[in-house]
Design goal:
The N and C termini lie far apart (46 Å). The chain has helices at 62-70, 86-95, 119-130, 167-189, and strands at residues 17-20, 27-28, 40-42, 47-49, 55-58, 76-81, 97-98, 103-104, 111-114, 137-141, 155-158. With 190 residues, the protein is α/β, with parallel strands linked by helices. The longest helix is centred in the C-terminal third of the chain and has 23 residues, at 167-189.
Amino acid sequence: MIPKTDKFEVPKRLPKLIVFDLDCTLWTPWIDYTYGPPFIYHEDDNSLTDKMGEKLVLFKNITAVFTMIQSFPDTKIGIASRTGTPDWARMALKYFQIPELGCNLHDSIHYMEIYPGRKTQHLTELEQSSGIACQDMLFFDDEQRNAEVKKLGVHFVLVNPAKGVTMHQFQSALQQFDRQTSTTQTTLQF
Ligand SMILES: [Mg+2]
């Protein structure tokens, strides 16, 4: 299904790096709750099955969201995940396709931090590897405990784990980022 984006006006100020958690933000369920590889990719519903035939499903708006980000010339994509099975996560990112772009998710991501730990560490590492300040990052994650990254200046968006990132939420977050950074700049000028 093609999301209704025709009325959306891309804001003037965009994040320089948009970061996503993986489990229950891009896909469901948690990848370390699956039985693991070998995974089989299913093109019809953009899902994987694990070695026991259980599904790992990409939420339906994710490919459209990634496609929209690719249309922003100065915005990169990052991943911050605390999964206990980073190798499985990277494998899944390579299997999941973005039909609109003719590539897989992994190929569309510029920076990745995937290992157990606190998200403040992941985001700090992303700042160092990308050279992009935390204040210029927008971060989507389904767990409230990870909102602690706000103390770094990261713009945090809490995702509904039953839906993942939706196009509506993504566009609203871009508009809010634009308003917040606009306010910050006005404050700094005075
Ligand atoms: Mg998660």
